[in-house]
Amino acid sequence: MQKIFFQTIALLILLTATSGNAFCQAVMTMTTDPNTKEVKITLFGSGTVTIDWGDGKNDNFEISDSISYYNHTYSDSFVRTITIIGENIIFMDCRWNKLISLDVSKNLSLKRLACPSNQLTSLDVSKNTALEGLYCGDNKLTNLDVSKNTTLKALSCFSNKLKNLDVSNNTELIHLSCSWNQLENLDISKNVKLVELYCGINNLTHLNVSENTVLQGLHCVSNNFSETALNALFETLHNIIFEDCGKIIFIDGNQGTNQCDKTIAEKKGWEVIFCIDKPKNHTKSKQSNKSKFRQKNR
After folding, report:
1. What separation, in Å, do the N-terminal and C-terminal C-alpha atoms of the chain show?
2. Where are the chain's structural domains?
3. Is 152 helix (H, G, I), strand (E, B) or coil?
4. Any idea of the CA torsion for 188, 190, 192, 197, to the nearest 10 degrees?
5. Is 66 left (phi over 0), alpha (psi -120 to 50) or beta?
6. Which of 47, 199, 268, 281 is least enclosed, having the fewest CB within 10 Å?
7. Single pTM value for the model
8. What's 30's DSSP letter?
9. What is residue 200's DSSP assignment?
10. Which of 256, 192, 195 is nearest to 224 (CA)?
11. Are 118 and 92 in contact, with CB atoms under 8 Å apart?
């Protein structure tokens, strides 16, 4: 009886361990819009990858430290849930697939995620603490929590519906693109490694970059900066000269663009770009800027 008892306990432990491994499996899921006819996914990593396309068809692949491209065509119009299983996937690109949901919370190895130009209303990356690059622009996000992504070096979340963006924990950030949102405030004082900032076409009324001493490019067009606010921004620009590159700031489309004193910035070695004659059709100007941001950050 004692032997049977211990065998039973051992079996239970084995089953529990097996169940735990299955539960912790690196699974990513995405749901498509019913009008999606074709899905394209790019992966990078190593090992075996299984993709369930959500229509009864499955594919198994071997990836070996190279970028792999997968696509699948649907013959009818239904909402599809695609499941990707792979323990060593460190990069996924799933842009332009009309995705309405994306769950990457179980892939803890993910270092780079590109999911722009979809229809996502939410995105949880709180478990993806290894992320170094997150590109989720041109979606419908109203909130984005990157407080746990302390290794993030590049964040592109342009053209969403964000009213707040906290990047205070992202001290490794080099590139930040948050243009075409609804931001009224942006604190980048903790992002001392920031080289390039795109924050145009928001509702910002002030910006302080005094702590950003390696900044080389600042795009803050079409916000609500007054003449005083722009001059104050110029005062916070650093005066460090880089031998291999210049420094440039774009300020077009702000209230104080034509009245500000750009020499404040120019004396510090910054090239100030703006139009003397404000476009009559401001909407067209913003749309043009939006196209430029999309091309730059996709």
Report:
1. 66
2. 1-86, 111-297
3. coil
4. -20
5. beta
6. 281
7. 0.85
8. E
9. -
10. 256
11. no
Token digits of residue 165: 């963006």
Rg of the chain on CA atoms, in Å = 24
Q: Which position has the higher pLDDT, 174 or 295?
A: 174
> pLDDT exceeding 70 applies to what percent of the chain?
84
CA-CA distance, 122 to 84, in Å (whole number)?
A: 19
Tokens 């080099």 sit on residue: 174
The single residue listed with the structure tokens 């211990």 is 6
pLDDT digits (tens, 9 = 90+) for 14-55: 333 333 333 346 899 999 999 999 999 999 999 999 999 999
Q: Are 166 and 144 in contact (CB under 8 A)?
A: no
Compute the average pLDDT of residues 98-119.
97
Sign of CA dihedral 207, 135, 246, 222: negative
Q: Give 46-100 pLDDT, tens digit per residue.
A: 999 999 999 999 999 898 877 999 999 998 889 999 999 998 999 999 999 999 9
Looking at the domain 111-297, which fold is it? Answer: 3.80.10
- 223, two tokens: 């916000």
61 Cβ partners below 8 Å, 6+ apart? 48, 49, 50, 51, 68, 70
Token output for 271? 């090239």
Residues 144, 125: Cα–Cα separation, whole Å: 9
| CB atoms near residue 34 (< 10 Å) | 12
Measured distance CA(45)–CA(255) in Å, rounded = 48
Residue-level length of the chain: 298
Average pLDDT for the chain:
87
